[in-house]
Design brief:
471 residues; 2 domains; six-stranded mixed beta sheet; elongated
């Protein structure tokens, strides 16, 4: 049977009770996650298709009798004047945030468990293991678009609070669960809306896929275009016309040179150079000019879209001074670039990095909850990607930390997440909620005893035994 004992009102829970509940609920957690993945909640700027998934999620939260607010980012007064607002996004009916609050009885600290419902588009389409929104379980992995980024993490967050409720736990501080819209493609408007709406807490956990590392820091990202502009036309009378595509080919080589310089000049203790280097990514090239017909011949221009990631502490002005100086020098000196006017422009907005001090009570609390439940000390490091953690930290004025599952092929075919990690995270988040909300009675690290030999992987073992026959 996949049922839990009748709940008894209590203000503390041992780790063993949480682990038992996660084991018993393993099948239900997996089924719920698969149901969530089946919603094709794609973000295709300027639009997004999160509405159906968010309506379902709001209904799931209301079934738990949590206080639920559903709102559009545009409903937040003054949001368009905020420095982190990204213009040009659309929010049609239903494209709304969902924030659920399980109110504490008082005297404890609040906790926010946060994630985004939008997923990358299903392209490229050469999926092999499954179709994007028809999830498949294979080898302990759950495949499907959004499984790792980041519906697996959201599932663990939802079930962490639900299991505590089913066990009869009463939090001291409020426990908040939120699913925001429009995070992908350098977004963040959904997260910003929640922060400005006042849905903040004493600690925020964002469930991006960190491969089970506790990450109090993440990278930032600069996004822009490099344009090489010449004359354009067709050399009918034999006079050569410099082709900006040849200049673009040289520019791609120079992006590698800039990347090497950028890495050499920037170090951060949470991002060891050998394992988490800063990347520079040219990701799109075009010769088209908006509103003009492109003739057959040498193009007028070539534009390369790029992303440069940065460590916490890097400012936008300092970066662009260095970046523009690099291209100005090469534009004047490099024979392949001299025929063209070389311009650098910003696109999107600066996706800000974030760092919560490693020695803060918040980081220690997350690491302690991880150790208590998983039975081993977590790795504490920086997340080698950009996300909306900085909006949580800056606009929400909260200590903000990333902690999510292992997975791979994010934004690519055959995306997957480790099922074991979804279950383990459910237990870790629940343990953190008990500890952080001001409850007492949790065992100390030195008293874990037999729990160390019965790790949270028990939950996935239970799942595999049950599902092997079914599959």
């Amino acid at each position: 049977m996949n049922t839990l004992p009748p709940p008894l009102p209590r203000h503390d829970l041992p780790v063993s009770a949480i682990r038992t509940a996660v084991n018993r609920r393993a099948d239900a957690i997996l089924a719920w996650t698969k149901r969530f993945i089946r919603f094709a909640s794609e973000n295709r700027p300027p639009d997004g298709a999160e509405a159906a998934a968010q309506r379902w999620l709001a209904a799931q939260c209301r079934q738990q009798a949590w206080d639920v607010e559903v709102f559009s980012p545009l409903a937040v007064r003054g949001i368009r004047r905020h420095s982190s607002w990204l213009d040009g996004r659309h929010y049609p009916a239903g494209r709304k945030n969902v924030v659920a609050r399980w109110r504490g009885h008082g005297g404890g600290r609040s906790l926010l468990l946060s994630g985004h419902a939008d997923v990358a588009p299903s392209e490229p389409r050469h999926w092999n293991v499954c179709r994007p929104y028809q999830p498949v379980v294979r080898g302990g992995r759950l495949y499907g678009r959004g499984s790792a980024d980041m519906k697996g993490g959201l599932a663990a967050m939802f079930w962490a609070i639900r299991i505590l409720q089913e066990l009869g736990f009463r939090p001291g501080g409020d426990l908040l669960f939120e699913s925001v819209v429009d995070e992908e493609f350098a977004g963040g408007n959904g997260t910003l809306a929640s922060r400005l709406r006042g849905h903040n807490a004493a600690l925020a956990i964002v469930g991006e896929p960190t491969r089970m590392e506790v990450c109090p820091a993440c990278l930032g990202a600069f996004l822009g275009n490099l344009t090489l502009t010449g004359r354009g036309g067709m050399a009918y009378m034999g006079k050569a016309i410099a082709n900006p595509l040849h200049g673009a080919a040289r520019a791609l080589e120079l992006f590698r040179k800039f990347e090497a310089q950028w890495r050499a000049q920037h170090r951060h203790r949470l991002f060891p150079a050998a394992g988490k280097p800063l990347h520079v990514l040219p990701w799109h090239i075009t010769t088209e000019t908006p509103g003009e017909f492109t003739q057959m011949g040498t193009p007028l221009l070539a534009t390369l879209a790029w992303i440069v990631w940065c460590h916490p502490g890097t400012t936008e002005n300092a970066f662009f001074r260095m970046f523009r100086a690099f291209w100005k020098a090469h534009g004047a000196q490099d024979p392949a670039l001299r025929p063209f006017k070389v311009t650098v422009e910003r696109t999107y907005h600066f996706v800000k990095p974030w760092e919560t001090p490693v020695g803060s009570p918040a980081v220690r609390a997350v690491a302690q909850a991880f150790q208590h439940y998983a039975g081993h000390t977590p790795v504490i490091g920086g997340a080698p990607f950009s996300c909306d953690l900085g909006i949580c930290g800056e606009a929400g004025r909260m200590p903000s930390i990333l902690l999510g599952p292992r997975g791979d092929h994010l934004h690519a075919p055959d995306e997957w997440v480790e099922i074991e990690d979804i279950l383990t995270l459910t237990g870790i988040y629940a343990t953190l909620a008990v500890q952080w909300s001001g409850a007492t009675g949790l065992p100390s690290a030195s008293s874990l005893g037999n729990h160390r030999s019965r790790s949270a992987a028990d939950a996935s073992a239970v799942f595999r035994q049950r599902r092997t026959r079914a599959l």
